[in-house]
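RECORD TYPE: inverse folding
INPUT: structure tokens
STRUCTURE:
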């Protein structure tokens, strides 16, 4: 994610904070990004320099005019004007990070061999709140039976592996690299 994407996201965050619409804007931006990125024809029309500005704006208005805020629509138009539509997904990611930082929340994928109990989830949430100094932790459970037992936490780019499979892999590497 580059600094240009972060600047767009920060500007949108400021607008969303003023309008008390942080999560609404995040959802709208996510929907727009998903539609534009997943539909090759739409993306090509919007990013093709041979298409007139009027055609692109008309398409945006037809796609999103009634379903997203004027601010989100203006952001999309600005990205087209500046030929930076390719940054949309990065802007979404930077915006999400900004929202999470503002509301002090953390999204965590928790991968386990079997479903964890609510008590186990609550203890993990509590420890993560303390460790990362956040007020909210959103645990997203994923089942992977190959872990044998334990769990892995994926927080952004960070992986905390407390699985039996991970411990066995670490032990295996220690045995292989151990020289006498």
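DESIGNED SEQUENCE:
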């Amino acid at each position: 994610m580059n600094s240009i994407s972060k600047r767009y996201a920060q500007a949108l965050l400021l607008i969303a904070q003023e309008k008390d619409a942080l999560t609404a804007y995040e959802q709208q931006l996510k929907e727009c990004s998903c539609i534009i990125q997943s539909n090759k024809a739409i993306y090509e029309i919007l990013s093709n320099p041979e298409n007139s500005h009027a055609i692109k704006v008309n398409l945006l208005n037809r796609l999103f005019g009634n379903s997203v805020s004027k601010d989100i629509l203006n952001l999309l138009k600005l990205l087209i004007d500046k030929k930076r539509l390719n940054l949309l997904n990065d802007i979404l990611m930077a915006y999400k990070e900004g929202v999470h930082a503002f509301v002090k929340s953390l999204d965590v994928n928790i991968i386990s061999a079997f479903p964890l109990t609510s008590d186990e989830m609550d203890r993990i949430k509590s420890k993560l709140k303390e460790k990362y100094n956040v007020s909210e932790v959103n645990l997203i459970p994923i089942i992977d039976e190959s872990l044998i037992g334990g769990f892995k936490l994926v927080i952004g780019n960070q992986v905390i592996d407390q699985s039996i499979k991970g411990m066995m892999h670490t032990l295996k590497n220690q045995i292989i690299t151990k020289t006498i």
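NOTES: The mean pLDDT is 92.
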